[in-house]
User: Fold this.
Amino acid sequence: MAIRRGRGVAAINYPTGMNLGGDPTQALVHSTPTGNFMVTLSSVDLGQGMKQIMAQICAETIGVPTDRVVVDTADTDTGPHCMGTFASRGTHRAGNAVIQAAREARQVMLEVAAEELEVNASDLETDGQGNILVKGAPQKSISIFDVALSAHFKRGRSISGRGMFLIPRSYPEKETGAMKPSTCYAHACTVAEVEVDDETGEVTVLTVKNVFEIGRALNPKMVEQQLVGGSWMGISHALYETTEPYYPNRDHGGTDFNQYLMPGPGDLAETEIIVLERPSADGPYGAKGPGEMCANPQIPAVANAVFDAVGVRIDTLPITPERILRALKAQATT
Amino acid sequence: MELRKSYFSDVRKDDLNEIGQPRPRSDSPGHVTGKTAYFADRNFPGMLHLKMVRSPHHHARIRSIDTSEAEKHPGVVKILTARDVPHNVYTILILIQIGPEDEAVLADGKVRWKGEAVVAVLAETERAAQEAAAKVKVDYEVLPAVFDMEEALKPGAPLVNEYHGQNYYLYDSGECRKVRFGDVEAGFAEADYVLEQSYQSSPIEHAPTETTGCIVAPEGNDRFTCYTNTQAMFFTLDNTSIILQMPGSKLHFVGGTVGGGFGGKVDVIVEPIAILGAKLTGRPVCFTYSREEEMQISSPRAAEKVVIKDGVMKDGRIVARKVTGYTDAGAYSRHSPYGAQKGAGHYPGPYTIPNVWIDTYCVYTNRTPSSAMRGFGVTIGDFALEVQMDKLARLIGMDPLEFRFINAYRDGDMKAHRQPTEGAALIECMQEASRAANWPVAEKYMAMSSYAKGA
Assistant:
């Protein structure tokens, strides 16, 4: 009887969005009279921070600081259509729609600035701080604040834009299954290190090292929050969670957080997150959807680490102490 | 967290102003100080509370429903049954033409899982609604139930859902979604080893902090505003419009920040009946799941069974992979036919294999309908695939990480579903994991690239 150590690896990919269902998203962008920008969507922020990311994408595209952008979302009376927040699609689909809308708004903004500065719009650039400059002659400039006032009160222009993103729906071919489930895939490789007590069957995840490739980390701090949470969920799926502990028997299902087991703060593995970025061809600034992918590789990595530790395969989730002990017992009698 | 900028630096511009910057989230101060408003923070004068009478049986015919005692209970305002719902039998994916309609908003004639909604009680207080719900008398004739996917697929099994006519979803490709690539039997014949293994999972709950729910307020102009924590505003609005046979222009959905979704708030369950209640009473209605309902009534992640048969060569090449996936949809489709199909598009994983055969089944049983969850159609498949990869590596006496390098897909490789690989990065993830975990692999693998073969 001993505590045994093992490690396991898993590598995965994950599709962004749901091309097999068709999933459009639209966005609207407009400027207030003083040069703040409103992004209007009907997309839902699940707590992952969609509003913040849409603000950063809009700000980057128009060329203003993020705090000049306000996102109004999740109201069907004001926001244009969005399929929904699922399938790792939010940032990718809505982000692309916001870029398109922001580009259109930026073009009007530059045209008004060009009239004010008496130059061509194509000779102008933004400084990212709220000003528009003449390329090569930065002393010749105008603030976006003044451009917006001019557009609204003097020139009668609406600084606004419409955005739409749609990847045509793919229908699987009946006989061969030829289909296009996604245009871009996120990737991951996880190495988990565990200790298994072969007397109690208990598993402790010591470390989990995750490498995630996500296209681009639009906001690295928010990426980290998403990936750390996902990594926790993967471990939780591997070792703890189920509504039906004796599936397919329907009995003994947990009805609250006392009975539905999940790892608590004391059960957290030492978690390492490393992010690679290979920008996707059709992602907003190259971003892919990391939201679902990040919770997947830990499950097989832990399962493989358990085998590495005690030499039994648990091919049924979750990998409970009971299942490990039964397998060890069976192994001892063969 | 560390950003490893050295990878793919030749194809990435890193000189942006706002993108790539760790700007603080504008909504986080509200979250951490408890000031963020969720749907349940709203309160309307005269708001009614809706409670469901649920089936205690896994499978039963409803002989009769008697609501007379419940109607007399103090505080009860309205009781709804199947006949009150304009378009009672529906399925949410009808919006993307994935039928048939197979699920009742309120059970009509039959219940097919333990917990199915039968009668909705609206009362002045939660307590009155709960007490009145307990007084509703439903006379059931219990029917044989089936809980196991294999049993459900056997001839003579109890028929779970008459709208399908058999215990599996019928795709245009037949009883399963199929992928056929190369000649899998020829692959097995030439393989040095063949390994067939089965994997199984159980249902998993999303366990959000905030339970599923909504509050509906009549606007007085024949419009209804629904404050909801759905993950998909228009998807919910459009489905509600069908169920209630109301023009979408009469419906106004307001969301906001959701207290966790994970795929568990896309089923359009609470909104239609709550709006119906508001319409028939003219009063605001709140329908929010209790924690117990969230755990056992709301859709879980499907239990899945995955059988993988692989042909592998001594040198590490996988030459054939046959995957049969079974998704336990429970009693109704919800999103499951899509999930099973998504699985077919995901297998055989991020590996280049010349001969592939995939069948994915969506199976009906008498259990809580399963639905979307983070990693929908893929998570359990990845568990099966990656444990199988570990077994194959050990079978041929190869390091599990090196074995994956040999088979990893790269740009230009043809996938089983006949799309050329683009933007691959599996190899680089594994190279970095090798370094981070101090798990050395041969130099030739560290020199590989996703860009192209031989690079």
Remarks:
- Chain B touches chain A through 124 residues (CB under 8 Å).
